[in-house]
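Q: Got a minute? One more chain.
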Amino acid sequence: MSTSSVESGSTSSSPLIRGRYWDYVRTEGVVLLVSFAVLVLVSAVGMPAYATVMGWFGAIYLMAAAIALCVLGLVAVRSRQSVSELLAFGWLALIGAVAVGFSALYAFTFGAAGSDSPTTLVVSVQLIHSSLFYIAALIVGSVFHLWRSRRASK
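A: Always. Here it is, folded:
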């Protein structure tokens, strides 16, 4: 009897965590996608030929952010019971910073291997572009989480 109660207790909390996890990943994923779209559109308006380059480096950043979001999102959901917009923004900032690191690691391993450019140049260019997407994610994320906290307080 004690085995079944332990098993039922562990399975009853698991769907709750899974539901919160996918809600969190979906919400922050949309924030990252919106920031990507905003930055690519702004670059398309400012310098149309550069939009393709921004799209390419942004896609690398988005893949790195998706990995960071899936891993750190699980930690974020398991570490807290209540949802605070400030805490969610803090996790978004951490996820973005880790994504910048992952994209630099990608540039170091794959980009430098297939390029005639020096490794430091490849990594530097990726870091510059990833930092632009990180800043855009912080701006869009701060506006989104501020809007959600104001809406929740009304």
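A: The helical segments are 2-46, 51-79, 85-111, 119-153.
Q: Perfect, thanks.
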